[in-house]
Amino acid sequence: MAMLEVNCLEKIYKTRLGGNQVQALWDVSFSVEQGEYLAIMGESGSGKTTLLNILAALDRPTSGSVLLDGCDITDLPEKEISKFRRDHLGFVFQDFNLLDTFSLRDNIYLPMVLAGKKPEEMKAKAEPLAKRLGIEDVLDKFPYEVSGGQKQRAAVTRALMMDPELLLADEPTGALDSKATDELLQVFSELHTAGQTILMVTHSTKAASHASRVLFIKDGEVFHQLYRGNSTNEEMYQKIANTLTLLTTGGDENE
Ligand SMILES: Nc1ncnc2c1ncn2[C@@H]1O[C@H](COP(=O)(O)OP(=O)(O)OP(=O)(O)O)[C@@H](O)[C@H]1O
Q: Which residues cross the membrane (predicted)?
């Protein structure tokens, strides 16, 4: 069984008064195997954020299901959702989502604080992880005292503190310069090699070219999927660029 199974997701946003409605997802199905590194791409408005919000249990679909290790997250009782997210998912966002008044260390400890872990346990978990991500020397600094790349690596460290089955990343390189982007993509590749399952939404062809599979969404449906096979990052980059051209020119990928 796949680690993540997304079945026939449909999402219709209704306005409060029930007048206009927008269909953001029509019929999205795909699965993710343990240890896969999946990138999701698509034009603005194609439904990527809607999909990610449903996968993150931040929103519920109109119909369809999302099974993580066999558990349907679209069906979780409201009071269990926060704990489920904390125990099973790690999140990385474009704008880091660090608390400005907390040091990087305290930001990183947060998921374990919320889970009621002991301080020694937090330190024992955080320090080797921070070292692996190259931020061990800035742990006691505040977000405004470090670079964007260091902030994002702190956010990744925080996301890994509870050993998530699935790391969800929303445009993780979107606010980074090219050097910090390369460093972050290197971190993601190393995590993938170590067995971490990653699902990343991105507009960046370069970021997606590091993934093991790229899924393209168009108008709320899966348009196409690219598998890395034995391709290098450069070859993947070219294949992604070609698919994006088809996507934006309205071509049929089977042509
Ligand atoms: N809360 C909402 N209420 C009504 N419509 C919404 C809502 N959120 C998104 N939509 C609509 O659903 C469609 C898909 O939006 P979504 O944000 O998922 O796209 P996206 O692919 O993430 O776009 P972007 O790349 O610009 O972030 C769009 O037509 C959008 O206007």
A: none
Q: Which domains, and CATH codes, for the chain?
A: 4-249 (3.40.50.300)
Q: Which whole number is the average pLDDT over 229-246?
A: 95
Distance CA 200, CA 38 (A): 6
User: What separation in Å is there between the alpha carbon of 50 and the centre of ligand 1?
Assistant: 6
C-alpha 24 – ligand 1 centre gap (Å) = 6
Non-local CB neighbours of 12 within 8 Å, separated by 6+ positions: 21, 22, 23, 24, 62
| 173: region left, alpha or beta (phi > 0 left; psi from -120 to 50 alpha) | alpha
User: ipTM of this predicted complex?
Assistant: 0.96
**Cβ-proximal residues to 200 (8 Å cutoff; 6+ apart), any chain:** 37, 38, 39, 40, 168, 169, 170, 172, 188, 207, 208, 211
Pocket perturbation via mutation, ligand 1, pick of 10, 13, 41, 171 by most ligand atoms within 8 A of CB: 13
CB-hemisphere CA count at 13 Å for 50?
25
For residue 105, the model assigns a pLDDT of 97
Q: Supply the mean pLDDT for the chain.
A: 93
